[in-house]
Amino acid sequence: MTSAVAAVIVSLSPVLTTVFARAFLPSERLTVVGVVGLLVGLVGAVVLAAPDPSNLTGGGTLAKALVFLAAASFALGSVLTRASEADLSIETMEAWSMLLGAGLLHVLSLALGESIAEVAWTAEGVAALAYLAIAASGIGFLVYFELLDRLGPIEINLVSYVAPVFAAVSGWLFLGEGITRNTVVGFLIICVGFALVKRTAIRAELRSRGIGA
Questions:
Q1: Average pLDDT, stretch 189-209?
Q2: The CA-based dihedral angle spanning residues 153, 156, 158, 160, taken in that order and rounded to the nearest 10 degrees
Q3: Rounded-to-integer distance, Cα 36 and Cα 211, Å
Q4: Residue 131 contacts by C-beta under 8 Å, 6 or more apart in sequence?
Q5: What is the pTM (predicted TM-score) of this model?
Q6: What is the mean pLDDT of residues 107-121?
Q7: Domain boundaries, position 122
Q8: Cα–Cα distance between 196 and 180 in angstroms, integer?
Q9: How far apart are CA 43 and CA 15, in angstroms?
Q10: Number of structural domains the chain divides into
Q11: C-alpha span between 20 and 196 (Å, rounded)
Q12: 38, 30 in Cβ contact below 8 A?
């Protein structure tokens, strides 16, 4: 499965979050305009990823199903975390999530026959591991849980639409990859979708700054 196809499947996370929220968080439901904005953002993510249509319906069914399951699990976890009445601090919740997640990954790796002894420790690999552990996981999820508590699962999972944009910009900065027309058009469509979902907050912010009616 190509990264473009995976990006499209992962971009379903906000849509799946909305579906789960209807069941567990009635107060988090979007309006009709909000749903339209959600779908517009998904279209923008598809345009930006520019997957080969044949890859969307071709082979690799198991791989696509697993990526979809991951996106659905993340969406459901966000909704259930919001709905949970557990009296835990954000830092404690993140620590338990990281601990249980790491333990599960190690158990699965052993079940698949992987061995720690076969790991090749290189400076580049250690640096990547440190970045993932500290920046992406430690700091990143701390920010995520904080925003989840403030904004709710539907709005916070809109980040799935922006991730391909940052991937394209990072590829341009560090790997010399070009910014294509699809990247620009997809980003603009995502902005329109985001504006529709957050139209009330954007309007209030503009009024507070004396812009508009």
A1: 80
A2: -100
A3: 25
A4: none
A5: 0.69
A6: 87
A7: 3-208
A8: 25
A9: 12
A10: 1
A11: 21
A12: yes
